[in-house]
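Appendix C reproduces, verbatim, an entry submitted by the partner laboratory led by Prof. M.T., so that reviewers can inspect both the input and the predicted structure.
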Amino acid sequence: MKYAILIKLGGEIIAADEADYDDYKGFLKCPNCKEPVFLRKSHLRNEIEIGSFFVHHKAMPEVSACELRVGRYSKQDVEIIAAKAKGQRLEKLKISLWKFLKNNLTINLKSWSTSASDVKRIKFLGEVVDYGMEILENNVNFIIDNTLPRVETLFIEKDPKIAIIPEMQPFFDAFLKQNKSNWRLHCKITREALELFLSSHSMKEIRYRLLCCLCHPKALESVPELLDLDAETVEWREKFTAYLTLQVTFVFLTVDWINIFE
């Protein structure tokens, strides 16, 4: 069969040519009969390459019917199953997004209330957070469609534009290694979570908490110009916008979404 359901991601549909046996072992089932299936990787048979496909664990009379039905899945059929899985993930994200974000590798959010207290106490910080909120709410599509894909590439290629302090590098390397075979799925869920965060009114408090941390002087030390330049200048606003959009996407990209949805 060409497709199987990955039960640990809310029922995500997986194409055989995109699957990884080690990561998905024990979590795959037939979209039709719901029985367990396994991945048979592409191989040569009589010098002819046979593409990857899913096979039922045990022979049953219904297997041929499953293979026939799943083999006829249209693009619309696949999209319907994918939308259902996405809906289940979004329900979980709506309830627990802040808890999940606390596990990111980019910035420590566990003491966010301390940063929020400083924002309320210091007028300038409050103005910076307000401006940050304006940036996020007015650039949802740009962040999703442009910033996120760019940051994904920078991260996977270990580009120096993403400044990682030396003592954290081993953790980021381990994260990339762990998610290597799942990278497309990881980025897909990152996009879903980020879009919810940016566009939903119910996420406004979470946006505020994250901004309090990212706009705090301790966080801005990673971009010294933002502490030195006049915040009223166009140059400062441009640098701050670039900093903020990159950092927000990187926070989401460094959450282990695959592990969360197991």
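Residues 75-101 form the longest helix (27 residues). Additional entries are available on request from the coordinating office.
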